[in-house]
Write a structure and sequence with these properties.
11 strands, 16% strand, 40% helix, 11 helices
C-alpha cells in the first residue's frame, strides 16, 4: 500500500535537481512514492533522474518524449500516482527532512479533502516566510467560504500546488488535474476549482517547503510568449466561476484578480520581447472586453487610480485585427 504519492516535474534543472532529490531521500518512507517526471529536458536532468530511479527509495521515473509544460507533467504524475494522498514539488525546490511525515499526519488528523501550508521563499541568500492568506489554522472549513472577500488576498490567491496535500478522492473526482498545456498560471484554474468543488479543507502553520525564486530557467523570469498563457488560465477561471451556483458573489473576485494580473504584466512590460509585449496589450484588451462588463466596471472602480487608469486605457484600444486571440 502506498500512503503518499509525491509528483515532481523536472525540466532543464540539472543545477538544482540533485538538491531536490537529496531532500526527497531525507523524506523517504516505505509507503511513500516519488514520481519523477522529466518533461523532455535537453540538459543532464534525464541522467540525474535515471540514477535517482535506482538509488532513491520509492522513485518512479517517467520521461516525456515531447515537452508539454508543467501542467501536463503534473497530470502525468497524477495518472501514475497510487497513494491515498498526493502532493507536489517542483524540480528546483527542496524540503526539510521529515516534512512529508508531518504533512501526512496533519491531513490524517484533520480528516479533510485537502490541507494548505505555509512555505519559505528563497531568493539568492534571502529567506522569507510566506503564509497562507487565511487566518484560521487547524480548523476544517468549506473551501468556497475562503474565496472571498474580493478586495483582499485570500486562499485562491495562494495558488502554489506544492504548498499542501490532497486526498485521493479529489483525483477520483477530477479535481486535481491541471488544464493540459498551460505553461504559466496553471495553478490558478486549479485552485479555484478546488475551492469551488471540494467539500472541506484546512490550513496549518507547517513549514518545510523551500521555494526557489528567481531561477533563470523559470517561466516567471522569461518574457516570451509562454507567459501569455495567464490569459487562457484566467479566462477559464472567469468562465467556470460564471457557471457556479454562487456566481453573483464569486465573479467579482475572479474578475478583479484577472484585472490585477493584467495590470501587473503591463507594469513590467519592458521584460517582454517586443513582439510579445504588443501581443500582451492586444490580448489583454480583448480579454477585458470578454469579461462581464458590469462586473468589470465595479472591479475597476474598486482598484487604485494607477491600475484602474491603465486598464481603462487598455479597454478603449481598438479591436485587434482578425487572428489575434487568447
Amino acid at each position: 500500500m502506498v500512503k503518499l504519492s509525491v509528483i515532481v516535474p523536472f525540466y532543464n534543472v540539472q543545477q538544482y535537481a540533485p538538491d531536490t532529490l537529496k531532500s526527497l531521500r531525507a523524506n523517504a518512507r516505505a509507503d511513500f512514492e516519488f514520481i519523477l517526471v522529466d518533461d523532455c529536458s535537453r540538459d543532464e536532468t534525464p541522467d540525474i533522474l535515471a540514477r535517482a530511479e535506482r538509488e532513491l527509495p520509492g522513485a518512479v521515473y517517467v520521461r516525456h518524449e515531447k515537452n508539454g509544460g508543467l501542467a501536463t507533467a503534473r497530470n502525468t504524475g497524477i495518472d501514475k500516482a497510487r497513494g491515498d494522498y498526493l502532493t507536489f514539488l517542483d524540480g528546483d525546490d527542496w524540503l526539510a527532512p521529515g516534512y512529508y511525515e508531518q504533512l501526512l499526519a496533519s491531513i490524517e488528523d484533520l480528516g479533510c479533502d485537502f490541507v494548505r501550508t505555509d512555505h519559505v521563499q528563497c531568493t539568492a541568500r534571502a529567506r522569507t516566510i510566506h503564509r497562507v492568506p487565511h487566518g484560521r489554522r487547524g480548523v476544517v472549513l468549506r473551501p468556497r467560504d475562503a474565496i472571498l472577500p474580493a478586495d483582499r488576498s485570500t486562499s485562491v490567491d495562494y495558488a502554489y500546488a506544492w504548498a499542501g496535500i490532497y486526498h485521493r478522492r479529489l483525483a477520483d473526482r477530477g479535481l486535481l488535474h491541471f488544464t493540459d498545456g498551460l505553461r504559466t498560471a496553471e495553478d490558478r484554474p486549479w485552485i479555484w476549482k478546488l475551492h469551488r468543488e471540494a467539500e472541506s479543507f484546512a490550513t496549518v502553520g507547517l513549514l518545510g517547503v523551500f521555494y526557489r525564486r528567481g531561477v533563470a530557467s523559470s517561466l516567471t523570469q522569461i518574457g516570451d510568449v509562454r507567459q501569455l498563457d495567464f490569459i487562457r488560465a484566467f479566462d477559464q477561471v472567469v468562465a467556470e466561476t460564471a457557471e457556479d451556483r454562487d456566481a453573483e458573489k464569486l465573479l467579482p473576485k475572479a474578475v478583479r484578480t484577472y484585472c490585477a494580473i493584467i495590470s501587473h504584466h503591463l507594469g513590467s512590460i519592458e521584460r517582454f520581447e517586443p513582439s510579445v509585449a504588443r501581443k500582451l496589450k492586444s490580448m489583454s484588451a480583448v480579454a477585458l472586453r470578454r469579461m462581464p462588463q458590469d462586473v468589470l466596471d465595479d472591479a475597476l472602480d474598486s482598484m487604485d487610480v494607477q491600475r484602474a487608469t491603465r486598464l481603462r486605457r487598455l479597454r478603449r484600444r481598438p479591436a485587434p485585427a482578425a487572428g489575434v486571440a487568447a
